[in-house]
Design a protein that fits this description.
The protein is mainly alpha-helical. It is 52% helix and 5% strand. β3 and β4 form a beta hairpin. The N and C termini lie far apart (122 Å).
């Protein structure tokens, strides 16, 4: 006869809790393009908060974080993939409409998909532009090689290498430039700045 025991086998697993996400909240400019943004902002801003002006402002700003994060996830998550997918859908719809140009449903679908593709493309552009500006600021703080190359490029871009005179000839001489002793407020609108070159207009009657 086998002994009877009141003990049973138990399998236990220990799950480590993930660390709390303390990343700072980042406002993305592309959110401004979404029609729901104004609704979210209006809803959070109209709520009543009791306290000082600073406390009210901080509380309302904090209340915006969660709905904006949800908006980002639902409407802008993986923005590059969304934009590419929307563009492909739009191209397929155009092809289908060209094969059946009298189909009103396809015509309406093309309009909807065009608006969607343009919206996501513009949102992606805003996102990449903001990301590039952020990268530039971070690298500027680090005084990295990237930052110094950007400074060098901007200096070259903003420099004026020569002047194109009214007779079509060029000059890089300071003495020959009629703008050297001219106050900036008196530089006429006929002076055209173009890619580091100043083109002098023939209209010089009001310069002096």
């Amino acid at each position: 006869m086998e002994p009877v025991s009141d003990h049973f086998l138990m399998i236990a697993s220990v799950v480590t809790s993930s660390p709390r996400d303390n990343r700072p909240f980042k406002f993305l400019n592309m959110w401004l393009q979404h029609p729901s943004f104004d609704i979210i902002l209006d809803s959070c801003w109209k709520q009543y908060v009791n306290g000082s002006a600073q406390f009210v402002l901080a509380t309302k700003l904090k209340s915006l974080k969660h709905p904006l994060k949800e908006l980002n996830t639902c409407a802008f998550g993986s923005i590059a993939q969304r934009s590419t997918s929307a563009n492909l859908e739009f191209k397929k719809a155009i092809k289908a409409h060209m094969d059946d140009p009298l189909n009103d449903e396809l015509k309406s679908e093309v309009s909807v998909l065009r608006a969607k593709a343009n919206f996501l493309l513009e949102s992606e552009r805003h996102y990449l532009q903001q990301k590039a500006q952020h990268t530039h600021l971070v690298e500027s703080d680090r005084s990295s090689k990237y930052f110094h190359s950007m400074i060098k490029r901007n200096n070259v871009k903003n420099s004026i290498s020569y002047l194109v005179k009214e007779d079509g000839t060029t000059t890089s001489s300071h003495e020959e430039s009629p703008l050297i002793n001219l106050h900036p407020s008196r530089i006429p609108s006929q002076v055209i700045f173009r890619s580091g070159v100043i083109i002098l207009s023939r209209m010089r009657a009001n310069w002096n």
